[in-house]
Design goal:
Rossmann fold; about 45% helix; 7 helices
Length: about 240
């Protein structure tokens, strides 16, 4: 993967940061998108290992002009883009009775609209380089979490977008998605009680929580495998099989 360049949205922390580290270790030069988080510690770590191999760009993915600038600036940094990982996500409950246009716009914009328009903005470059796109969906598209109505809808839209783009951009660009199960809990402790966490893990056939590296390794596989297209790969310990 030497000299290849990947743009990872939401790459400064949590699963995104693990994806960045893993792809960088494989030889990719990485462009790390952030919204509010600082990527400086991560960039220092990576550039210490390989000089001038990691940079960050800030953009609000709910802003169409910012998405266009992100695509343009990412391309200018290393002169090419070979892969795009649409990892950035907005996640929180929206109980019926408390759903308003603001939360609808936030969840749909970040989780579905931004991946579409960022991929569209980079489609020409990705085609030129026979590149690949990996989107981050969720197993709860099939098994919706209670009260996460808009989140589930937004990820369902992203799953369908994965499939439509896989047809539209073929044969030059492969588009796939990863659907995580229980990997990291929400950043807000109030989203899931300890009792709720235990109940959810009990439904996983492997009887344990996954790790961020499980997602990173799957994304790396999909970026490198040349004959997988339009697929949603569940990394969920078998949760989809359970009642």
């Amino acid at each position: 993967m030497k000299d290849k360049v990947v743009l990872i949205t939401g790459g400064a922390k949590r699963v995104g940061a693990e994806v960045v580290r893993h792809l960088h270790a494989l030889g990719y030069r990485v462009v790390v998108h952030t919204r509010h988080s600082s990527a400086e510690p991560l960039l220092n770590e990576l550039n210490a290992k390989r000089k001038d191999s990691a940079v960050s760009l800030q953009a609000d993915l709910s802003d169409m002009k910012a998405i266009e600038r992100l695509a343009q600036d990412a391309l200018k940094i290393f002169g090419r883009i070979d892969a795009l990982v649409n990892n950035a996500s907005s996640f929180y409950p929206t109980p019926v009775g408390k759903i308003d246009e603001a939360v609808w716009d936030d969840l749909m914009n970040i989780n579905a609209k931004a991946p579409l328009f960022l991929t569209q903005a980079l489609a020409g470059e990705l085609k030129k380089n026979q590149g690949a796109v990996v989107n981050m969906v969720d197993i709860h598209v099939e098994r919706p979490l209670k009260d996460f109505h808009v989140y589930s809808m937004s990820k369902a839209a992203l799953e369908m977008l994965t499939k439509t783009l896989a047809r539209a951009l073929a044969p030059d660009v492969r588009v796939n998605a990863v659907a995580p199960g229980i990997i990291l809990w929400g950043e807000s402790e109030k989203d899931f009680s300890e009792e709720k966490k235990a109940q959810m893990i009990k439904r996983v056939p492997l009887q344990r929580q996954g790790e961020a590296k499980d997602i990173a390794e799957t994304i790396a596989f999909l970026l490198q495998q040349k004959y997988i297209n339009g697929q949603i790969i569940a990394v969920d310990g078998g949760r989809r099989l359970a009642v």
